[in-house]
Amino acid sequence: MAHPNSVEVLLRPAVELYTVAVCGGASLLCLVAPWSLALSPLLGLGSALAFLTFGAIRWRDALVVLRYRRNIRRLPRYVMTSRDVPVSQQRLFIGRGFRWDQRHTHRLVQTYRPEFRRYVEPTAIYRAARRIEERLEFAPVPVSKLAMALAWDSPFNPGRPIPPVGGLPRLHGIEPQEVDVTLPLGERVGHSLVLGTTRVGKTRLAELFITQDIRRKAGGQHEVVIVFDPKGDADLLKRMYVEAKRAGREGEFYVFHLGWPDISARYNAVGRFGRISEVATRIAGQLSGEGNSAAFREFAWRFVNIIARALVELGQRPDYLLIQRHVINIDALFIEYAQHFFAKNKPKAWEIIVQLEARLNDKNIPRNMIGREKRVVALEQYLSQVRVYDPVLDGLRSAVRYDRTYFDKIVASLLPLLEKLTTGKIAQLLAPNYSDLSDPRPIFDWMQIIRKRAVVYVGLDALSDAEVAAAVGNSMFSDLVSVAGHIYKFGIDDGLPGASLSVKVPINVHADEFNELMGDEFIPMINKGGGAGVQVTAYTQTLSDIEARIGNRAKAGQVVGNFNNLFMLRVRETATAELLTRQLPKVEVYTTSLVSGATDSSDPTGNTAFTSNTQDRVTSTSVPLIEPSHVVALPKGQCFALIEGGNLWKVRMPLPAPDPDEAMPKDLQELAGYMRQHYVEAGDWWENQGLPSLQDSALPVDLMDDFKQMAGDAAAAEA
After folding, report:
1. Class of the CATH-defined domain 187-270+425-566
2. Staple 44 to which of 39, 76, 442, 478, CB 3.0 to 4.6 Å?
3. pTM of the entire predicted model
């Protein structure tokens, strides 16, 4: 049984103020009229100091109760400019908060008891002010000024409105003594997962982390920062550029944006590889591998691998355009490679092949080769007679021996993917022309980015085309995994003078809405990327998003199991909240109850008619440290953080304050404006389908009129 003193009750009247008032009056009396208390002036001064000291102690105790009661209803404002975000070489700043333990669970349970309701719910003045505001919304101007006065956000306003963050302020208000919450940088290699529903502060937390990553220097050198943003958040792009400029890194700042190809950097997702087979893996990995599709994906992998090997042997760097060209017409590559091979190994073979070609006609072409070029048929006949052992030539030969109609059916699933990646101006980004020196847009690859300690913003424009965004994001992840494997084995400076395996560069990867980008290649990156310095911070909404993307609960569990640090903002799915709450222990909370009773005496001759007793009982109950309902009720900008081996912290992030020197170059301002316009406001959809600079030609005026007429008819039908 707990001692009654262990039952803390802070939701109560601040009775200490009575003592403060008495002490204040007594000290005043001792100073002004010590003779009334039979004291000399000197003793009166000493007594006054004693009363003031005791009153100060009780005033401090009263402040604890008053501050606690205020925080239960309204938290103090917490604002910080990005310039003031603390940057440490040892720790990552998260926000202000406290470590959650049994005391906080006990206090939270108390707030739900009916006797404390008046301290938790809004005051009568507050409720009346909000009702008056609603009624005066459409009142004349002189009267509406009263509503403006009631909405005045000032401590002098007794009906001051609560900040529009929703949730329960009590979840954080139960601990008035806040401290800066930080995460040791050594823990980040274990990766971090941020979960939260839409518009509750995930991006703000990302900005906080990214700001520190951009400005931090490890061993005198900056760290690599790579941000994947599928939606395209204009404020996040602006924050990254401003911070890069403040850190003197604007020359190392790259923007890759599928929705704005004219100013985007260029990137070849299959141009760099450790093993040639990685090219096929990155492309075929985007295809479905479920059920009957598995066999088609395997064939597509083999076919792309054959093409990639041939291109490398010919001295050409693979890219999506080249691969698409040869998937559509493998004959040209077969002929080109055969010319290259025979020129080196059998110079006279080509004369025989030309003679064989001259003898061919529609009658003597084999059935499986109908539709192929005659030179391809002649090559096949020559190779069937002469033994030539070359794996690339053998692979190409096996591809062209398929019946043309059957072959087109087998690669049918591959062509739509390649079309997505090579249509319009996106082709210029994903298949850059390395020999075009007049193009000012830089070309980057991940090894170059890591060696330069660069900052990269990857905007995938997923709201415009989710399929292309997912394909490009997956390819980038897969490429990054390959680079991480190379760094793990050979170090970051492999091939450079004075290369050392011991040099490790922190590679901070921030993946917003990462469920939209994630595929099978994401698992090895978080599983084994830490050895190469990759530190992933992933942001998503629910566990179901991950499971739906992967299509396998076991694999989704495998992904989540690799994140050592968990930041849980408000979520709407109970299963997601239980990812946090199930990892926490149960604790004992104490409750007091007053028991009184009376018992009649059974002895009519006795002097006692009845006996009575009154008891204060303290009982303990075992409850979870926090419930899923508490996670669901978090205000915006607040989270539970499970960090440093399972320590639970309650954190709130600082609200951003404007900074006057945050200026961007004109092209990035245009990009940010485009992102705000097209990603936030729906507007007239026919007018928001693109900007003229992003299209090869504007839509015809008559077609635009047809769109408007269709939309007007649809609106009239709905009405």
Report:
1. alpha beta
2. 39
3. 0.84
